[in-house]
Amino acid sequence: MAQPLLQVSNLNAWYGESHVLHGVDMTVHEGETITILGRNGVGKTTTLRTIMGIIRERRGEILFSGQDMSRVPLHRTAHAGLGFVPEERGIFSTLTVEENLMLPPVVAQGGMPLSEIYELFPNLHERRSSPGTKLSGGEQQMLAIARILRTGVKLLILDEPTEGLAPVIVQRIGEVLKTLKDRGMTVLMVEQNFRFASRVADRFYLMDHGKMVANFPVGELPERMDMLHKVLGV
Asked: Does residue 1 sit within a domain?
């Protein structure tokens, strides 16, 4: 198998004196959609934030496209090819939809032009002159994803992309992720909505108490359900 696009080895992380990640190992290959499953508080978001370099009190190895990310300062992470959509979305409320879209710099070739973004997200085209304060939660999530796609990143990292959204918006985001996969985009996401995750992911990591306790492809879901019920309560 080809070298992983992202390889995380023995990753530990702390919030002050609180040891949150305990030797996380994970790989993401180019073109894969990977979902991290787990209950609240087990370290899923911390894993994403540590990979992005937001949490600097860490040990272990994070290799992205063969580059040691521990040596990359936070303000250069996006230029390395990592794009992060946090749970809180970070929409600038005083800017219009189109101004939000145009704000992040293009870091590499291959980013989507506005015409393709608007084709993928028709709602954003309709609301392109609306300020961020006028958007629904679902529209904000679409905007948060869309502005990363314009920058040309190699890996799209999503933290709880369907949290609190209406079923019709969840379905639309699922369709978008499938379209991105068809285009070769690599996606790593944390997701509590197990049914949604099972429709879009190629492979799962199951997290508990700050470490990965299982790693399996979507085809093994039926035989893994007892374990998932035990760990997730689904």
From this structure: no
β-sheet bridge partners, residue 206: 37, 214
Q: Which residues pair with 203 in a beta bridge?
A: 34, 217
The two three-digit tokens of residue 145, written as one number: 């994803």
Contact assessment for residue 142 and residue 124, using Cβ atoms and an 8 Å cutoff: yes
Distances (CA, A) of 53 to 49, 66, 184: 6, 16, 25
* Residue 99 domain-assigned (yes or no): yes
What CA–CA distance (Å, rounded) separates 163 from 189? Answer: 12
As a whole number of angstroms, the distance between CA 84 and CA 40 comes to 20
Q: Answer yes or no: is pLDDT of 234 > 70.
A: no
Report the domain count for the chain: 1
Q: Write down the pTM of the prediction.
A: 0.94
Q: Which helix (H) or strand (E) holds 205?
A: strand 203-208
Going by their DSSP bridges, the two strands 33-37 and 186-190 should be labelled as: parallel
Asked if residue 48 lies in contact with residue 188, where contact means CB atoms within 8 angstroms, the answer is: yes
Residue 1: pLDDT above 70? no
Distance CA 25, CA 38 (A): 15
- Identify whether the C-beta of residue 162 lies closer than 8 Å to the C-beta of residue 195: no
Q: How far apart are CA 124 and CA 37, in angstroms?
A: 29
Query: Which pLDDT belongs to residue 128?
Result: 94
Across the chain, mean pLDDT equals: 92
Which residues form the domain of 140?
Answer: 6-232
Sequence-ordered list of residues with C-beta below 8 angstroms from that of 99, at least 6 positions apart, any chain: 92
Q: Is 207 helix (H, G, I), strand (E, B) or coil?
A: strand
CATH number of the domain encompassing residue 48? 3.40.50.300
